[in-house]
Amino acid sequence: MEKKTIVVVGGGFAGLEFIKRLNKADQYKLILVDINNYNFFPPLIYQVATGFMEPSAISYPFRKILKTKKNVGFRLGALEKVVPSQNKIILNNGELSYDILVMATGTETNFFGNKNIEEKSLPMKTISDALSLRNVIFTRLDRATRFNDTQQRKRLLTFVIAGAGPTGVELSGIFAEMRANILRQDYPELRDEDLGDIFLIDGQSTVLNAMSENSQKYTHKKLRELGVKIKLNTLVNDFKDETVYLSDDTEIQTKNLIWAAGVSAKTFDGFSEESLGQGKRLKTNAYNLVDGYENIYALGDCALVSGDENYPHGHPQLAQAALQQAKNLADNLGSDSENWKSFKYKDLGALAIIGRNKAVMDAPKHKYFVKGFLAWLIWILVHIMGLINFKNKLRTLYNWIGYYIYKDQSFRMIIKPRERK
Question: In terms of residue numbers, what domain contains 154?
Answer without folding.
Answer: 115-261+349-406
